[in-house]
Sequence to fold (352 residues):
Amino acid sequence: MHLQERIDAFVKLGDFLRQFSNEVIQKADNIEHNEIFFNGFKHQLKLAKEHNGWFTDDNITFALKSWSDALTTDNLRTWLKPYSIKDLNPRNVAIIMAGNIPLVGFHDFLSVLISGHHVLVKQSSNDKHLLPFLAKYLKYVEPQFKETIEFTEEKVKNFDAVIATGSNNTARYFEYYFKGKPSIIRNNRNSVAILSGNETNEDLKNLSEDIFRYYGLGCRNVSKLFVPKGYKFDKFFEAIYHWHPIVEKAKYANNYDYNKAVYLMSEFDMLENGFFMIKEDESFASPIATLFYEYYEDDSELKDVLNSKKDQIQCIVSNGFTENEIAFGATQKPQLWDYADDVDSIKFLLSI
Fold:
């Protein structure tokens, strides 16, 4: 299968997903194999929501829109242009996927197949309904994929390289189990935002998207703020208030109530507004419904701190603070070339 054939197949998948990327699902004309797959995918969406309470309509729709926007001919060609992707000796690449947000492992799945390798997928039990169905669609629009895509619920075997994502504890297990194989091993990371105190209301509203999207469960979600000494949070709380309906979701509300009770019983100082809490803490990983913050006085010192802990940070959100920063509101809108942990997966896949 040539590269252009693989690109064309994923573009058709993007066209298929576009039908499900708005609040109202609408069947479109001229989508290949729609009669076979449209209603079936609607059913898979229903199963995904029933199986995982964090996978709400809004969050699944957001994920599908992100991928339908990404899977265009222009985007795929721009992404792949820096690489020399020629016919290679296909390897079997295992992917151990996380399940914290819908289709969180899709970029790895796409990368393996677009580079010309075969993929062996072991999914998280939290996100097991969507990707196998989309893989079936790919096999229909490009039958040559039938020999290159496999899913397993058992221990992965017969693979040449691996991309594995998990917690810090599972990452240590992965490193031991997969030693001797070419690998990308990812562990826990969190994202931070740097505020100067000069942010507009629109900036802070955009930041709230980085905080609350997917309930804060993604590694690209902002879980920690760095604010200047003496920063007043009134404008921040005002700007994020439009997210208050989030507390109507039972799983979020349970976490909010539990964490609030823990903080109150422990007599921790924190600020809250009825659906969200902020707490001064040096940690990067904050619980659901909570954002940690830390004061800073000197930009240079803060940059040194962030650089010393860069292996714990996925994204830095700011405006003019540092290179490779991400704009307010953009953490959950990565481009295809925005690699997790800054590890170039295509370069890795072309080297094995």
